[in-house]
Write a structure and sequence with these properties.
Keywords: DNA-binding. By secondary structure, the chain is mainly α. The protein has helices at 2-7, 20-30, 35-53, 63-75, 85-104, 122-126. It is globular and about 40 Å long.
């Protein structure tokens, strides 16, 4: 712990106790977006991220849980059916950005949303 304090990497364990939704709303308010982009981000979070992650504490969300959530979005678990790979990529990108901000703000120690996106690779698109 002393080394992490000296190197500036110390993260107070209490800092990550904020709910994902509360932190995401703070993050959203600080973003510089056009009104249409801001509305799109709000919709993506409200429809896809908040039902699963919203009430969870930032520090309690594991990368494996984010990966399972992304898979459920792709597979269509729930009442909406499967999401298009591009939509899953957008939602994952937003959630990943929120976690990156949480790391910069020293709310969590490591990036928790680093999961490979479901988007097809560029080479897969050219093979059609």
């Amino acid at each position: 712990m002393t080394a992490s304090v000296v190197t500036g990497r110390y993260v107070d364990p209490k800092a990550g106790r904020i709910a994902f939704k509360a932190y995401a709303e703070q993050w959203r308010a600080a973003q510089v977006h056009r009104p249409s982009s801001a509305a799109h981000v709000e919709t993506m979070l409200r429809r896809h991220a908040y039902p699963t992650l919203g009430e969870r504490q930032l520090s309690s969300i594991l990368p494996s849980e984010v990966q399972a959530w992304v898979k459920r979005l792709s597979a269509g678990a729930g009442d909406r059916g499967p999401l298009a790979p591009s939509t899953v990529g957008v939602v994952h990108g937003i959630v990943s950005s929120i976690f990156k901000a949480a790391v910069r703000d020293r709310r969590v120690m490591a990036i928790r949303a680093r999961v490979r996106s479901c988007r097809r690779s560029r080479s897969a698109r050219w093979r059609r």
